[in-house]
Automatic annotation (TrEMBL):
Domain Disease resistance protein winged helix, residue spans: 467-536
The organism's place on the tree of life at top rank: Eukaryota
Database matches in InterPro entries: Apaf_helical (IPR042197), LRR_dom_sf (IPR032675), LRR_R13L1-DRL21 (IPR056789), NB-ARC (IPR002182), P-loop_NTPase (IPR027417), Rx_N (IPR041118), WH-like_DNA-bd_sf (IPR036388), WHD_DRP (IPR058922)
Residue ranges annotated for the NB-ARC domain, each copy included: 215-383
SUPFAM superfamilies: L domain-like, P-loop containing nucleoside triphosphate hydrolases
Protein name: NB-ARC domain-containing protein
Nucleotide-binding among keywords: yes
Gene Ontology BP annotations: defense response; response to other organism
Record's keyword terms, sorted: ATP-binding, Leucine-rich repeat, Nucleotide-binding, Plant defense, Repeat
Transmembrane residue ranges: none
Family: Belongs to the disease resistance NB-LRR family.
Length: 1053
């Protein structure tokens, strides 16, 4: 229903409904103008305090107007949802009808008041900007995801710090060349905290020997310098230097940040020391988490851990509040071996002077010539600076204000690179921000300029991030979901809001306002540099509020204008904050984050009448209270990593909910009413709850859902596979179970899997165990489950048909990387149908993919099959009827194949093993229990082979030892139940010292393994049940199985 109809439905006259509808429309169309004005006013707020006040008032008025409009929009949605499937009479007694009447009765005045207030403050700010001469054009949001320049400034590129690095390493007592004795016994333990470590992943070696603890305070070496000058980068260079890794037994990195919490820091040090031992001192229960171990117990544990260790401890980003805690914190550190060192980075000379035991290293900005070169790379990217002589002159002027700071060079250089014109560069050079009063050597103006030049859409997103504490690690989907829930992401045609939000994030990353989190390489996690966090605070004042550090900072009363708030408390301060009754205007909040140790008051929920995002992440509640169901406007609810086991049955009342994140929580079930939340876009659940969700009737109502881990097909209405029909936005992984309940190809096609272009992983499962009762129509069902063209991983499990589907063609699956058939007992032949390609490169049904055509493997007559050029992994397990895969296992057809796994294919009689040498990318080859194999030609392996496992495979073992001649990269060799193998030559495959794991079992004819000395260089060796092998006494076991279980995982998975 439209707005007029809805207003009239509560008894309002037609004329009154028209008037109110027009007023609402007028208010809605006024908001874009107000937001543009906010963007313009921010340019002058740093100079004029009166303008700053007006700007805050305009933001507040805009928020109030948005709240009022949202109430109407959400109420229309609520009533529409309640009236669905309700009789006409039932609609008149709808519960939301009474709410609507109450809303409309007072809205006529409220809408007019909101419009008047908005018009007034807009007029005042426009008048003031005109008087000040501010005529700034709004920055348009570009379409490019990441600028070309970003690839030029890679994190490993460090300019001009070699001298400082060597100086620090020398002060740490590291000799210029340091090699450990080969006779000393080593116990290796990898150790690393993440930035929290703003640095790279690296390993640490723990060496246990007989040296005694020094019982003296370890040497403390501070690196002191202004923010952004490169203190952390220098510490990373030192920490990861090979001379340092061999000099210290163990290295630990802890990011301290602006709160020196003795308990947390001590706990993190112990976590690092225990990381690879898998000890559980911090695998604590919820009760223990909220009643953590005493500092005394932690320090006793740390003392024990450091005994006999020469350690390097890096404490990054230490602030002045550490001084009063330092002595108590450092007491256990004196039990390390003599030569142990503590490296501290800090901006504060007072901290450096207080903790140091030797002269601090004072880090200055980069030398002028080196800094200018670095700045040019940032500002010009791929362009040649010599082509812009006038810009080089302007750049030199700007460089003089950047204090030699690499961070300032990256952020401002990226801004300059947006537009290589003199007008743009001079606008930045002459900006009044440079003239404001700042502390000496402050680079804040450069960072604030980067903010001012953001498009208005990105400014709102960036400001919201100021409610997160320093070093917070953002998941990509987490931050984008929050932006979407706040309405900060603009709809662009048919593009999904999440896709647009991801582009916003990539734009902020390209401007170095976010950086990849090195704790989680390649996993889409991001952090903000400390200085970027500090810059975000003043630009979001009065709008966003981060409450933390009660122990050390004066508490401020929250402003009535605050819309986004986060409450963080350290372990000591928690007991001081018993409630938030001092926090006023909770009804104004749009966002509220509560720290993991914060005690939640249930009564607060009723006050959060405008809340859009609520985070109870990590909370101790076991049941989400019913009171949360009154939050009518809630868009995003985060209960991840919490102890919550159940949510209210009335969760369907949260009709505006778009995101429910319960990942890694204790949630066990999900109410059936979840299917009424038609706006739900993301539903992240732990395994048990996901399985319960898969059995709920009516999941097809969630047509906006972008993720569904499991769907279990039933036989009743609401559970059939057709429920997936309209869920076209599903992405990520979809596991469809119980396909045995699908009766025909036509029924299977109702799922419209082919239209789900966001899907990356598709698992099609008929049954969970081997069954003798197979259906003859399962071939037709599989034909109807045509996957989308963008699928990357396809797994078929428990399939009872005898043939692969006709849609298994390269042109249909151009991005397929992983293909698996598991427990497909009747599958007799696996062939991938492909279009025939002629000499001119044309093919019937071809996708037009140039790369596909270039990769065509041609025969002498010019006819070829299109290859699966992206397939890297082929896995065929428990396909007992499979007899032939020769057509598929062709290097020309699978040119990128890295992994082949054939297990329990008992009918497989032949393999083209002589062609395996053509798989030039092959790394893993695993063939188990294929005992009918007859290989008339010897297997030949490529140089790239790294892991090889052969177990009970008929005549395949006759290929040994010849097949190992080319294997110069082999790291794992597993040979079991090989009755025809007589010898192998370890000396020929272990000369490069790459072979780490060797397992030989039950090989009755094996009589020689070559030179025995080769065994000494292999990390783990196991030989047993080889009666003719007299070179070693059996069972022979040397070394211990690796803690990462690489051997077991590869052989037995």
């Amino acid at each position: 229903m439209d707005t007029v109809q809805w207003i009239m439905s509560v008894g309002t006259s037609f004329l009154e409904a028209i008037q109110l509808s027009n007023d609402l429309s007028h208010l809605r169309t006024s908001l874009p103008r107000a937001r543009v004005l906010i963007d313009r006013a921010e340019w002058g707020r740093f100079k004029d305090k009166e303008l700053e006040k007006l700007l805050l008032e305009l933001k507040n008025t805009t928020y109030d107007s948005e709240d009022l409009l949202r109430k109407f929009d959400d109420q229309v949605l609520r009533q529409k949802m309640e009236d669905t499937n309700r009789s006409r009479a039932g609609q008149f007694i709808s519960s939301s009808l009474n709410i609507a009447k109450g809303l409309i009765s007072g809205s006529k005045t409220r809408v007019k008041e909101a419009q008047s207030k908005l018009d007034k403050v807009v007029a005042e700010i426009e008048r003031m900007l005109d008087l000040m001469g501010f005529n700034v054009e709004p920055v348009q949001l570009g379409k490019q995801l990441m600028p070309e320049t970003s690839s030029m400034i890679t994190e490993p590129m460090v300019f001009g710090r070699d001298e400082e690095r060597d100086k620090v390493i020398a002060l740490l007592g590291v000799p210029p060349t340091n090699y450990r004795s080969a006779t000393r016994t080593h116990t290796f333990i990898e150790g690393l905290t993440a930035k929290r470590m703003k640095g790279e992943n690296s390993g640490a070696k723990l060496v246990i020997d007989d040296d005694k603890p020094c019982m003296e305070d370890p040497t403390v070496l501070p690196i002191v310098g202004i923010g952004g000058v490169g203190k952390t980068t220098l510490a990373q260079l030192v920490y990861n230097d090979s001379r340092v890794t061999t000099h210290f037994d163990v290295r630990i990195w802890v990011c301290v940040s602006d709160l020196f919490d003795k308990r947390r820091i001590t706990k993190e040090i112990i976590q690092v020391l225990n990381q690879k031992r898998k000890e559980t001192i911090l695998s604590i229960t919820t009760e223990e988490f909220y009643s953590p171990p005493s500092l005394d117990n932690l320090q006793m544990k740390l003392m024990e851990e450091l005994m006999d260790q020469k350690f390097l401890l890096v404490l990054d980003d230490v602030w002045p509040n550490a001084n009063q805690e330092w002595r108590g914190f450092s007491a256990p550190l004196r039990y390390g071996r003599k030569g142990s060192m503590i490296l501290v980075t800090t901006r504060s000379l007072k901290v450096a002077e207080y903790v140091t035991t030797i002269e601090p290293v004072k880090l200055e900005g980069l030398p002028t010539d080196i800094f200018l070169e670095f700045f040019k790379k940032c500002a010009f990217g791929r362009e040649s600076p010599e082509s812009y002589p006038q810009l080089q002159d302007i750049g030199r002027s700007i460089v003089s204000s950047l204090c030699g700071s690499p961070l300032a060079a990256k952020t401002l250089g990226r801004l300059l690179n947006d537009n290589l014109t003199e007008q743009h560069w001079r606008g930045i050079q002459n900006n009044e921000l440079w003239e404001l009063s700042y502390e000496r050597n402050d680079i804040l103006p450069a960072l604030q300029l980067s903010y001012l030049y953001l498009p208005q859409e990105l400014k709102r997103c960036f400001r919201l991030c100021s409610i997160y504490p320093k070093d917070y690690s953002f998941r990509r989907d987490e931050i984008v979901d929050i932006w979407v829930s706040q309405g900060f992401v603009a709809q662009e045609g048919s593009i999904c809001l999440e896709d647009t939000g991801n582009r916003y994030l990539d734009d902020l990353r390209s401007r170095f306002l976010f950086q990849d989190d090195p704790k989680f390489p390649g996993l889409g996690r991001y952090v903000m540099h400390d200085l970027i966090c500090e810059m975000a605070q003043p630009v979001s004042v009065g709008e966003c509020f981060l409450m933390q550090n009660f122990s050390y900072q004066n508490q401020r009363t929250t402003s009535h204008t605050v819309r986004h708030m986060s409450i963080e408390s350290d372990s000591e301060a928690q007991s001081r904050l018993t409630n938030v009754t001092t926090l006023h205007h909770l009804n104004k909040l749009h966002s509220l984050r509560l720290g993991t140790r914060f005690v939640i008051e249930i009564s607060w929920f009723s006050q959060l009448s405008n809340i859009l995002f609520l985070s109870l992440k990590g909370c101790s509640l076991e049941k989400l209270p019913e009171g949360i169901c009154v939050l009518n406007h809630l868009r995003c609810l985060d209960i991840s990593e919490s102890s919550i086991q159940e949510v209210p049955n009335k969760i369907e009342c949260l009709c505006s909910l778009q995101v429910l994140d319960a990942s890694c929580s204790s949630l066990r079930t999900i109410p059936e009413g979840i299917t009424k939340l038609v706006n739900l876009r993301c539903l992240s659940l732990p395994m048990e709850a996901s399985m319960k969700l898969s059995k709920i009737s009516g999941l097809g109502n969630l047509s906006s859902l972008r993720n569904l881990s499991y769907f279990k097909v039933g036989t009743v209405t609401g559970r059939r596979i057709g429920e997936l029909k309209d869920m076209s936005l599903l992405g990520g992984t979809l596991h469809i179970m119980s396909l045995v309940n699908v009766q025909s190809r036509e029924e299977a096609a109702e799922a419209r899997l082919v239209d789900k272009q966001y899907l990356k992983v598709l698992i099609l499962q008929w049954r969970g165990h081997i069954s003798l009762h197979l259906k003859s129509d399962e071939n037709y069902v599989l034909e109807g489950l045509h996957p989308p063209s963008g699928i990357e991983c396809l797994m078929v499990r428990g399939f009872g048909g005898h043939a692969s589907p006709s849609w298994l063609k390269p042109e249909n699956l151009p991005t397929l990387k992983i293909l698996e058939f598991f427990q497909c007992c009747s599958l007799g032949c696996l062939s991938v149908e492909a279009s025939i390609t002629s000499a001119d490169g044309t093919a019937a049904g071809s996708t037009g993919d140039d790369r596909l055509r270039r990769a065509v493997s041609r025969s002498s007559n010019g006819i070829a099959r299109l290859p699966l050029i992206r397939l890297t992994s082929l896995r065929l397990v428990r396909c007992g009827s499979l007899t032939n895969v020769d057509q598929l296992l062709s290097p020309g057809y699978l040119p990128s194949l890295r992994s082949i796994e054939l297990v329990h294919c008992e009918s497989l009689a032949s393999l083209p093993v002589h062609n395996f040498v053509g798989f030039v990318c092959l790394q893993d080859l695993k063939i188990h229990h294929c005992w009918k194999l007859e290989c008339p030609r010897e297997m030949v392996l490529p140089h790239s082979t790294q892991r090889l496992s052969i177990y009970n495979c008929g005549g395949l073992d006759r290929s040994f030892p010849g097949c190992l001649k080319n294997t110069t990269s082999l790291t794992l060799l597993d040979l079991e139940c090989c009755p025809n193998m007589e010898s192998i030559q370890l000396s020929s495959i272990s000369t490069n010292n790459k072979l780490k794991y060797l397992v030989i079992r039950d090989c009755p004819e094996l009589s020689s393994i070559g030179a025995m000395h080769a065994l000494s260089s292999i990390y783990y060796v196991e030989i047993s049940d080889c009666p003719k092998l007299t070179q070693v006494q059996q069972p022979f076991l040397n070394g211990s199985k690796p803690e990462d279980d690489e051997l077991l995982e590869f052989i037995y998975s």
